[in-house]
Amino acid sequence: MEADVDYDHVMRVFREAAIEAGARIMEVYRADDFDVRAKSDESPVTEADEAADALISARLRAAFPDMVLVTEEQADSHAQTAATFLIVDPLDGTKEFVQRRGDFTVNIALVEKGVPLRGVVYAPAKGRLFYTDTNGQSVEETGPFDPEHIGPTTPIRVGQPDKNGLFVVASKSHRDAATDAYIAKYGVADLKSAGSSLKFCLVATGEADLYPRLGRTMEWDTAAGDAVLRGAGGRMVRFEDHQPFTYGKPGFANGFFIAFAPGVELQQP
């Protein structure tokens, strides 16, 4: 699926699957109550995660039967090795979902040769939909988010940072002293907290300039947001040495990273 990729088809499938999964997630979200269980790593999982995963996986396997598919909710998929693959987090930000804070997303991405080239991030409770278009340019679509009909889209682009007054976004559920110490190395005009892969999209739209993450994440947490950020002119690098961030790592586990608008002068750890 590399030499003659039909990116228009890829993104239509991604977009439709994300919107349909988002609708299913919101059905659970609006219910009076729903079950929450702990997975083996103690992270929470709900019926919304599982329903969204089933829907997205079925769509992707039907559309791209020969592609490796990695998804958070299917542990057996984590043992695969590939440089080119589809990767899914059907409900990123389950903690935000459980606490009904709205900062959760559906993430679907295509990684080619270790690079997330196409992706969609849908935040159904926030009414925001971001994705890369056929040419790899990132756009934000405005509602009503009909799976079969694409609504108005606006190209998005990272901002022009003021090094003396950066807009910084950090994790809402995983903020720690080390993150705060690193942020303190910069001149900061505003620091906001957000959940899930929305943080990548805030940098991609220019609503933030810098997003450092000094904590555990997996590739399905970041690939789609990284693709949207790259398509908006942004970058993502390894925290420790500022080298390119790649995908297809053993077990699909991430190290620490920094996502940023290129005008930011990165500080050393």
Defining key terms:
about 270 residues; alpha+beta; 7-stranded mixed β-sheet; 3-stranded antiparallel β-sheet
Task: Give a quick rundown of the structure.
By secondary structure, the protein is an alpha+beta fold. It contains six helices and 16 strands.
- Shape type: globular
From the helix content, strand content and strand pairing, which structural class follows? Answer: alpha+beta
State the helical fraction. 25-40%
Low-confidence runs: none
What order do the SSEs take from the amino end to the carboxyl end, as H and E?
HEEHEEHEEEEEEHEHEEHEEE
Number of contiguous helices:
6
Our Rg estimate from Cα atoms comes to 17 Å
Q: Look at the structure and give the mean pLDDT.
A: 94
Strand content: 25-35%
Q: Would you count the extended β strands for me?
A: 16
First-last Cα distance: 38 Å
What characterizes the major β-sheet? Answer: 7 strands, mixed
Description:
This protein is of the alpha+beta class and 269 residues long. The chain is 27% helix and 28% strand. Strands 3-4-5-6-7-8-9 form a seven-stranded mixed β-sheet, with helices on both faces. Helix 1 packs antiparallel against helix 2 and helix 5 runs parallel beside helix 6. The radius of gyration is 17 Å and the shape is globular. The model has no long low-confidence stretch (mean pLDDT 94).
